[in-house]
Request: fold
Amino acid sequence: MDYAERRVLNLTLPLQIKGDYIELKSSWTKGGIRRIIPITNKEQRICLNEIKKICGNESLIPEEKSFIEQRNLYDRLTHNAGLYNLHGFRHAYAQRRYLELTAQFSKTNGWRSSLDGGKAHNKLNNYEKEIDLKVRAIIANELGHSRVSISKIYV
Reply:
């Protein structure tokens, strides 16, 4: 990881790594909603270990800056680096989690969401619809939304 990549990582949201999940405190997030985000794979753990090397246990946002000031700096630096529309990472996360969670609940290989090339909701059988609803609720919560219906934007 080069200096520019480390600099971008250092400008992301504040987080607390707690064993097998990340906690975003409500005072740190858009809408003031606390988030618990599970760490589900080796790649996430590697990335988080790199972040810890850079920041230790300190916030990724310097004390002298507000969230919005840091977010504006992050946006400017990512744009300068040629990176745009990073909200797509939320969509990718939601779609990956959908596959993981459908696998977990169905005890199979799971299935892709309709926006990720899977079956349309009206093509799911009753068992799949039951799992789909549970999975969408979990994903909505992880993304900081209180309504399951918002997950249709992502999955």
